[in-house]
Predict the 3D structure of the following.
Amino acid sequence: METPRQIFLHLPYVKIVCSRKTSPVQKIIPIRVEFSIGFSSSTAPEYIFFVSSKQIYNKESNMKSSYLFFTAFLALASCALAFDPSPLQDFCVAINDTKNGVFVNGKFCKDPKLATANDFFFSVKEGNTSNSLGSKVTPVTVNEILGLNTLGISLARIDFGPRGLNPPHTHPRGTEILIVLEGTLYVGFVTSNPQNRLITKVLNKGDVFVFPIGLIHFQLNVGYGNAVAIGGLSSQNPGVITIANAAFGSNPEISSEVLTKAFQVDNKIVDNLQKQFWFDNN
């Protein structure tokens, strides 16, 4: 078994109930608790706790160090150690037979000895905003910089023409923090059901705004000229789902019966929306 990593928790106070013949007495005793977590090389990891504490002698309670040890151990044993890795793509279907192919959550790693500066470099150009939305998003994810693999970050440059819009969309795998480099943007996001509260702000050059992971958000250029913003994202591949494109431009199309009931509109409106070309500014 590998040497356990040492993790130190400084707990200033632990409440302990001392038993007396007359009545229970509660004492607050400061202790320092240490524990280690060891992982075996087997497929089912073992979790091993080593707990010790410094005894603080108290004349009234006359408590023993073994009781402190047992209490600290029970408190730490309740901690959950298992977790699932965050997905780095839309889905990763399990297979029972590896002959059908192998795909990892993320990307395979190059031998570190073969890494070069180009693995960590990408040049971002000004985006072409001559389109129906008047905006262009230039992503810089693990697909553009291979060195971002496993690092959990990425960014995007967003260019806006006059009245340009980055339409309502979500990032299923990342929180976004946006800074305005030029221009004035009206930005906002909508909270989850049932409140669906709209939170908005007008941003000027140098202003920063956060869009929480998974929530629908947008940016609209409300200034007199062009605008530029940079969005940092908390995933190497945050993904993007543009609401209108997904609802009315899916392939194959979503049943009009589903959309008419969902949006509470006439079937002709849905048919017209599905016939339109939904531009993807990413």
Summary: Confidence is low (pLDDT under 50) at residues 2-61, 64-82. The CA atoms of residues 31 and 87 lie 40 Å apart.
